[in-house]
Amino acid sequence: MRLPVMPPVAPMLAKLVRDLPEGDDLRYEPKWDGFRCIVFRDGAEVELGSRNERPLTRYFPELVASLRDEVPDRCVLDGEIVVAGPGGLDFDALLQRIHPAASRVAQLASATPASFVAFDVLALDDADLRARPYDERRAALASALGAARPPVHLTPATPSPAVARDWFSRFEGAGLDGVVVKAASLPYREGERVMLKVKHERTADCVVGGFRWHKDGRGVGSLLLGLYDGLGTLHHVGVASGFATSRRQALVGELEPYREPDAGSHPWGPAELGAGRRPGTQSRWNQGRDLGFEPLRPALVCEVAFDHLQGGRFRHATAFRRWRPERDPASCTYAQLEVAAPTELSRVFAAGR
């Protein structure tokens, strides 16, 4: 492979803002929820590089074949690998695609085929485009992928903040989790957080069912959060983390009255194995990690901010907001959560044309 931009490449990144910025020099795109991927193609050779610069090629053979058919012979593209399910983007199905067994990879390629959504171009033919402004790169990308067919897609883009706000609300049901904002004059700056991202944020009141110690052993690293289903089963739905050092130490004293010495009677203890989603379940993603936790009597409620609920749990770590001592833990159910109505992914993909 001989291209003007060679692997590995650290993709350009975005920093989080809470309000959608406006300006004549700004461009907006939907924020996809998948695996960031740099595609390198030189004739028959195709390589897929991840955000952490590791190869993804072997896990998506069906996508490699489609890229040979649908993208220019010599190019370097930045985009996202996604899996589309009946209810929108399916990140859980995407995670399963990273499997060590070749036979399983082949089976999943057929059962849950992936798509590639392109949103930038770093090189075309012998031209290195990284120093060119975003508007020029976008025009080159649109021209290069103008005839591309699924599963290769061109992401939608607009200069209109009103359209971006519509996408922010309407596309959420398809599994997209916000909007990315780029300056029209922005060159491609590898590994730097020079774009902006606006993500969905909601709040929920959750039962604190346990905690894990911080890796330094000097405070609470994360709170384990639970929600009750309609049958009264407490399910582990995620964690609240990211506490400052002083707050981690203060939490030890705040949680002490709720420590549960008898783990066997805890909703997430051995006596209830299989009754609901529990923390600490081993998988190939966390082999070798200490997933033990300190159980807490399920009587403490906190409010957390989250961006996305998927498969009955929070997609990312939540942010602790405050304690809710007035809230009855039994009232902390899934029913309190606002769920976006599904939007057909075809409408999202079509907006890129």
Describe the structure.
The protein starts with 12 loop residues before the first strand and ends with a helix. By secondary structure, the chain is an alpha+beta fold. It is elongated. The strands form 5 sheets. Strands 3, 4, 5, 8, 9 and 10 form a 6-stranded mixed sheet that branches. The chain has 2 domains: 188 residues, 2-Layer Sandwich (D-amino Acid Aminotransferase, Chain A, domain 1), CATH 3.30.470; 135 residues, Beta Barrel (OB fold (Dihydrolipoamide Acetyltransferase, E2P)), CATH 2.40.50.140.
Brief synopsis:
This protein is of the alpha+beta class and about 350 residues long. Helices cover about 20% and strands about 30% of the residues. It has 2 domains: about 15-200, D-amino Acid Aminotransferase, Chain A, domain 1 (2-Layer Sandwich); about 200-335, OB fold (Dihydrolipoamide Acetyltransferase, E2P) (Beta Barrel).
